[in-house]
Amino acid sequence: MLRSRYRPGWVPESQTTGKDESECEDSIHLPNEQGGNVRDATRISDGMQVALKFVETASEEAAISKTSHIGLYFDTLGMFPPDIVVGSDICMLNIVVDASRMIPGGFHFIHAYTSDGVHHLTCYRGDDSQPRLIKTRTDAGPMKYYYTDFELAVRFPSFEARGLVTGYVGHLRYLAHEFSDTVPYDAFKVDVRLVGEMMGINYLSGMEFLAPLVGKLRHRSPKRRLDAEEALRLFR
User: Fold this and answer.
1) Each residue of 117-163: pLDDT tens digit?
2) DSSP state of 210
3) Residue 42 forms beta bridges with which residues?
4) Domain encompassing residue 18
5) Which run of H or E residues covers position 145?
6) Which secondary-structure segment (H or E) carries 51?
7) Structural domain count, the chain
8) Does residue 11 lie in a domain region?
């Protein structure tokens, strides 16, 4: 079920109640919604918040999304089972977290620090019954992070049938020197490099213990980089 502003016959709440738009959830919209391809909604069967992305039905992205959904980050370190998929665009912008343990009552898709777009979340003080609470990651416990956005992904029929690819793509393409429109490269090794680059950019400050892992992931020589299983073993 879409939010009210996206349903047929929608009339802004500010017009029917006289409230200021800042007090009305239905006044909130994505900055790029005129040409954007992502919307939020509620799954009717269980009330779960979901995000919807509009893609071409005949595209590779649609095929990957139907079978792989979204790949679990760090449990796979660059691989997206059950299909053999390389993401090619691994970066912080394409990783999301299941925050249900951190914000048990849910949060607004656009105004994430509010429960409903209007009322702000309050810091957890040890009382799970308090309304609109947000916990720290320490209080919340382990959470799962996921890869999203398969627009640039490549899928192979099996691990044995994987091959080289071409393409100068992705947010961090300038950091992985293998990316090329003309010279084929191993996209699995590039995914490992991208995980290392992303961790180096976003995690090393204050988490220097990750430096040995990051160095092995972003090694300039693809042959000397860790594979996914080695990286996961070292991470753990």
Assistant:
1) 999 999 999 998 888 999 998 999 988 888 888 888 888 888 788 88
2) G
3) 49
4) 1-54
5) strand 145-147
6) strand 49-53
7) 1
8) yes
